[in-house]
Queue: 3 jobs
Job 1
Amino acid sequence: MKGLSILIPEYNCDCTQLVRDLHRQCASALLPSWEIVVADDGSIDETAVNQNRIIGTWDNCTFIRNEQNMGRAAIRNFLAEKAQYDRLLFIDSDMCIVSEDFVKTYLASSAPVIYGSYSIVGNHAGNLRYEYERQAEHRHRASVRQQNCYKDFHTSNFCIDRSIFIAHPLDVSYEGYGYEDVAYGDQLCRAGIPIQHIDNPVGYYDFETNESYMLKVEESLLTLYRHRSQLKDYSRIIAVTAVVERIHLHHLAGALFRLVQNKMRRQIVTCPRLMLFTLYKIGYYINLARCQK
């Protein structure tokens, strides 16, 4: 049916304020048909779950609790199947709305796939994820992203025709953290489906601890290695590793990394330095490739 389905996958996160803001914008936009569907993906934080249950009592809103964790790709596919309307707007639950015209801006475009990006909210100096995102912020402008439209795509904030998403769901083989959105950009590219990049960001404000982020990064590097054949054209880490292997330095690089890995990691967690963080990721991937062979 004609209308807008806003789909929010959620895990251990209170997203009631996000839904309130979206609900207000949808109501004021006088949409003939719309809904907001939140799917809890097996959260273990019962406080967050109980806070989110109220969403199901609001007009045009549905809250679904899945007892088992489906994973980042599968939960989005699940939401798309549940959606009633022909346009799907996916938003991550740990984001916030920073523009009063957020919904209207998406409605103004009829492109089959639209990516609005995200922006940093607040100052979180000393936080590794914040410092990393702040360094990359200049690349978030739509004019920059459009130049590499398939590589600069993320699932945190995008709108897509339901018919396209049902025909081209996310790859559920990406079970671990990371890269399912990169793979989806590649999937859309192979299918010849254009992506329109616009400046319509959600706000990123909830930064995890440095230790938590490091664990996510290490998990994502394992995901990257497992799917390296598909992702080789989308990762600088794979490109650098290929060069190191080509000049026959990967054994030496791996050995040196193992000697300093723990010290590097402690330094990054305690006092983040982005250059050291980059070297750590390269070393971790090279060593991971060695261990997995």
Job 2
Amino acid sequence: MSESESDSQQSPRAPQAPRAPGARQSRLSRRQRARAVRGGQYAVLLVVVLVVALAADWGEIRRAFFDVEVAKAQFPDIITTALVNTVVYTLLGFGFGLALGLMLALMRLSKVPPYRWLAVAYIEFFRGVPALLVFIALGFGVPLAFQMSLNQYVTVMLALGLVGAAYMAETIRAGILAVPKGQTEAARSLGMSQGRAMVSIVIPQALRIVLPPLTNELILLTKDSSLVYLLGLSLSQYELAKFGRDALNQNRSLTPILIAGLCYLVITLPLGHLVRRLEARTSKAR
């Protein structure tokens, strides 16, 4: 061993400079930074809420949105007439749209090209046309062109159903394609025809699969039923949007619109909860 090597091994190490207290904590961890950012966001939100609360004219807001006397005047008609009619219109449109959508889905899956072409043309047309135009066409165009008068409920059923069927057809078609082919093969091996296997085996399973999106479509039709006001309804045929609009014109207050919106939520919130339950059950089953 050389002298230089022995000296280097025996020489003591240079003392390190002492760390300043708290130097290890000078850098925040990722979780601490996230907490700090979240705390800053909460602080900004709190400041905005306080500014709005202090600057708002609560007396004017109460008069415009929460007029108790105007609210009392809406009951019970907004429930017994408007809410009931909204539910009836929605169910009529959904029932017709579901039947037509199922037929269109089968046409889209057919091996006959003209059936597929007709189904594709229908679906693309009614998915691209606003529901407002469909209501105008059936409520005013058809009676003028053919010199005929349609019942109000029939008009609503056709208008909502024709639009809803275009969306439900694609949903049902996706559900049918999601059913394993082994189900059909097993049914055919038992002697069932193709049509019988489709009706008895495939379609029930497909409807079970697409039940959550079909419930979403029911929610959309509930909101689209507000377009019924275009048809010139009588008092006994008012739905929520028409009822709230007329009450707004009479009272010069937004309270009726707020109540009508709450009535829509009475319908849509339980349906939304049902959709989440169905989706969770479907995922668990899979």
Job 3
Amino acid sequence: MAHHASPLWWGRPGDQARGTGTRREATVARGERDSRRRREARLGRPVGGRAAGAGPAVGGVVLLLPDGEPESVRRPSPLAYAAALPMGRSLARAGREHGLVVHAVHYRFRGWNGTDAQPAVDAARVADEVLQRYGDVPVCLVGHGIGGRAALHAAGHAAVNSVLALAPWLPEDDMAAAPEPVKQLVGRQVLIVHGTNDARTDPELSYRLAERAKKTNRDTCRFEVHTDGNALRQHHGEVQALAADFVLGALFTRPYARPVADALAAPPPLGLRMPLAAGFGRSLRR
């Protein structure tokens, strides 16, 4: 499975092949110079238009972790940042009365970059900034693609109480490499959502990770969005409703909808291959 195929905005096919050696060398040199400049991960402005001091006191924070690339020292893609905002706005609306604030994270670099795991490091640094700004409030990490993997890795931060990983990008099984860590998920509420027709990130890899995580953390579940792809566009309404139900339940102890509660309680494989029903957002019954 081509779990790290390039998204459409990374350039037109053939551009690299048409470039001359000089142009490629210049591109690499610019990337190396850019990577040496000091950058800092930072907290973006609140998503959803919440003004300082407006509404109820802040009771919880969502950090949106955008997608990226496996290897790159370029600046993060503004398109990947923009792609995370619809989910952020949906969560901000759903949690406004509870004092939920949503921020998107600005990474230092576009790439995961091997053992550097830079988006995960950035997520933890920005979680520190959340504590400085809002005090001791619970944080939910919500990431897509490489951002999903970053959310899972950064879950061990003391402020994080929950993780929502959408179509997480995970490495293929490699006997020579250490397996993806799961100990940091203990004590956190964890939800993974993956489209069964995802041709960019392998849904079977997220199932295997969830299976391992479930052995040490009962509060792990995974939903499958049948026939949907990496962007989860086909059933975006149901995915947003599922995300809102999970985030509000994890951050504010609101009762989960029955499907989410059942998925958390069910043993593998049932609770890790829970189908996301059509019309989820319109048919919640508690």
